[in-house]
Amino acid sequence: MKHRLHRLIAVALVAGLAVAGCGSKSSSAGDSEGDWTPKKDIDWIVPYSPGGGFDVYSRGVAEAMQKTQLPDGVSVVIRNMPPLPQGITQEYTAKPDGTTIGILPMPAAIAQQIQDPDLAKWDTEKFTVLGSVDENAYVVYVAADSPYHSIEDLINKKGLRSLTVEEGSSSALAGLATIKALGLDATVTYGAEGSADVVTGLLRGDADFIVYGSTDLTGFVESGDIRPLLFLGTEDQRPQTLPWLKDVPSAESKGFEDLSGAVTELRLIVAPPELPDNVATYLRDATYKAMTSPEFAEWAKTAKRPIIPRDWKAATEVMKKQVAQMKELVPTLSN
């Protein structure tokens, strides 16, 4: 296992060096010359239903972008387009003219591309990356009144049940990877409509544990409804703004080094492939400036949402590393 991890890291580092103008069209094209500013509203596609983490972050960035970066009269319109394959396909196949952008869930996008290439009508590495807003490491949670008080309690129990959103999502992938890495005797039910629905099922007794993002369920932890048992990210992915997460043991500290950070959810902001360079430049600048604006920092504070803004180059590098990781990890989950 450690040898495979070393190969994975080596491949990821090489992939990370391959960052070029990811997804955008060469400036030699005639329609790529000169400055560009939007004259029409921009559709922002979210491949999930309203209310979940990707939707919330999308609305926060879109609001900051509209207030601080876009010309007067130009709005950013959120378009929720579940299920996941349909939403990602819409992001990928939209006309590359600057009027459609969206939030891309990783590692879900590349995982579905690997698992079901007939369904996944996209090539993850060909998206035009505009930036990323957050890196959401996963956590194993149980209900507050659960008899399980440590990850060892779960490991030693037979016939466990878990619950998540649609099959192929980042959360579903994280759950499968966790079950495999920890050797849990567990079955998974798919089809919850979002984070609130997942927690409701957990509290109702439909599941013994769930695997969900550290930034998605803060309100439920702080209200005392659920308890975290295990942090699945690396230490630099542990949000300092979440005091309840400070003392939660990590996968690495429990001896599961290969799980640490392997399925961290990336919230990428993308446009379709072949976006003209001048359009890509404008949208990349607008996205990063919006995410680093005082207005967005205030939004994050009010919404209690940690943020890790990255410009398009840094976001592309992180994406390529995770693509390399998933090409090694995903095939093992079906074994």
From TrEMBL:
Transmembrane regions: none
Coiled-coil residue windows: none
Leader sequence residues: 1-20
Superkingdom of this protein's organism: Bacteria
Pfam family, one: TctC
Protein family (similarity comment): Belongs to the UPF0065 (bug) family.
Name of protein: ABC transporter substrate-binding protein
Native source organism of the sequence: Mycolicibacterium agri (Mycobacterium agri)
